[in-house]
Write a structure and sequence with these properties.
Layout lengths: L1 E10 L2 E7 L3 E6 L6 H13 L18 E10 L2 E10 L5 E4 L2 E3 L10 E4 L4 H5 L2 H15 L3 H22 L6 H44 L6 E5 L31 H8 L6 H19 L10 E6 L2 E2 H4 L2 H22 L6 E5 L7 H11 L4 E6 L13 E5 L2 E3 L2
Parallel strand pairs: 3-13, 3-14, 8-12, 12-13
Antiparallel strand pairs: 1-2, 1-4, 4-5, 5-6, 6-7, 9-10, 10-11, 14-15
Helix pairs in contact: 3-5, 4-5, 5-6, 5-7, 5-9, 5-10
Subcellular location: Cytoplasm
Organism: Cryobacterium roopkundense
Keywords: ATP-binding, Cytoplasm, DNA damage, DNA repair, DNA replication, DNA-binding, Nucleotide-binding, SOS response
């Protein structure tokens, strides 16, 4: 898969932009603040329906405008597809494929990309919400139908929390208890599927993560991903924080099995299903949930601990190690997608990455990505990027494409 042309209207600092892109490596060069990252942010949005920089879509609409349009022409398997999304300040966003309207959440079915940017350091050092979002975005790229499962879970969770809040402090009546039981079953059905899918994804990421880390760092620091489930009580602990200089005791062991059904059994560490563990957790937490008015167990409260050299990367890893871990995690994601996809490689996007690396790691990273069908790289300084990646260079100045 590759992008042959990117068109923007009123997106960030671009009133209009037309950017032809080639197979192989495309290098976008410009001083900070000129708009190079805005180009790759737009493409990232088409595959994840989110920005790697901001949480609010409206921030991507040019000042004073009511809407922004991202339009990309894609080529894969001999097909030519035009994808488009309109971001609106008021009302819902709208999407089209080949000029026919589709649900916005279905856009990832048509375009796959993996973005690594400086903000991804927060995957290692930040709070659990960023790690959950990373896993869920990758799940949707691998299996777009899960977008609906995740959206339905969030809807049910919101409804359940509303019921809990209404009952807080006033005492729950019998009819409210029966209503809560109904929401519990729906929450368990959807949430268990998300938990199992995440567990399988964590298992699949293990080997390519280790391979990517060795390729970039040229050392084996034993990177691991340890899932932690709130349905087993993980939410009660400060998971992943340094504790007496020792390896934490995860409430869920790394998943070693080869099938999703078996992994969910192992994940619950008691021989029962994920759904059984989820129901038991909700029953045990009901009093606390009624007191606090929120749902205290489920995939919305889970986490994954990133381990390096047998210790949590958060709190122990250096800046360079954390950066290399986050980069390797994205490279591992791209490797999984290229293995699974019938439409070819995902478009690999590296936003301002090479400035953080020494010459040796720049060379190794270049070797690791050179065979992807299409790679987009941004850089403030041309000399930061290995010469092997500079054959097609686009220069950006003040929201416009200029001659080099």
């Amino acid at each position: 898969m590759r992008v042959t042309h990117l068109s923007l209207t009123d997106f960030r600092n671009y009133a209009a932009a037309e950017v032809p892109l080639l197979a192989g490596t495309n290098l976008i060069v410009g001083r900070n603040g000129q708009g190079k990252t805005n180009l790759v942010e737009a493409l990232g949005y088409l595959s994840t329906l989110g920005s790697h920089r901001v949480s609010d879509d409206k921030a991507m609409i040019r000042a004073g405008q009511s809407a922004a349009v991202i339009r990309a022409r894609l080529a894969y398997n001999g097909r030519d597809i035009l994808t488009e999304v309109q971001l609106n300040r008021a009302g819902l966003n709208r999407a089209q494929v080949n000029r026919s309207a589709i649900r916005t959440r279905d856009l990832p079915r048509y375009f796959s990309s993996v973005v690594f940017a400086p903000e991804d350091l927060a995957l290692v050092r930040g709070d659990p919400s960023g790690r959950r979002r990373f896993l869920d975005q990758l799940l949707v790229l691998r299996s777009p139908r899960l977008s609906g499962v995740i959206a339905d879970y969030e809807r049910v969770l919101k409804q359940r929390n509303t019921l809990l809040k209404s009952a807080r402090g006033s005492g729950m009546k019998e009819n409210q208890l029966s209503t809560l039981d109904i929401w519990d079953e729906r929450l368990v059905a959807l949430g268990s599927e998300i938990i199992d899918e995440r567990a399988e994804l964590v298992r699949l990421l293990g080997e390519p993560l280790r391979a990517a880390y060795r390729a970039v760092v040229d050392e084996d620091h034993g990177p691991e991903l340890l899932p932690l489930l709130s349905i087993l009580g993980a939410d009660e602990f400060s998971v992943g924080e340094p504790v007496s200089g020792t390896r934490p005791s995860p409430l869920v062991e790394p998943v070693e099995t080869s099938t999703q059904a078996t992994s969910s059994t192992q994940a619950t560490s008691g021989g029962g299903s994920t759904a059984d563990a989820f129901r038991a957790a909700l029953l045990g937490l009901r009093r606390k949930e009624l007191e606090r008015g929120i749902t205290l167990a489920g995939p919305h409260r889970d986490d994954v601990v990133f381990m390096l050299n047998g210790l949590p990367a958060k709190g122990y890893a250096s800046h360079g190690e954390s950066w290399s871990f986050a980069l390797s995690l994205k490279l591992a994601s791209a490797e999984l997608l290229r293995r699974d996809s019938a439409s070819g490689d995902p478009v690999l996007i590296l936003d301002d990455v090479f400035a953080e690396l020494d010459q040796s790691r720049r060379r190794r990273l270049a070797e690791a990505i050179i065979d992807y069908e299409q790679v987009l790289i941004t850089a403030a300084v041309l000399e930061d990027v290995p010469e092997s990646l500079t054959a097609h260079t686009i220069h950006i100045r003040g929201g416009a494409i200029v001659d080099g």
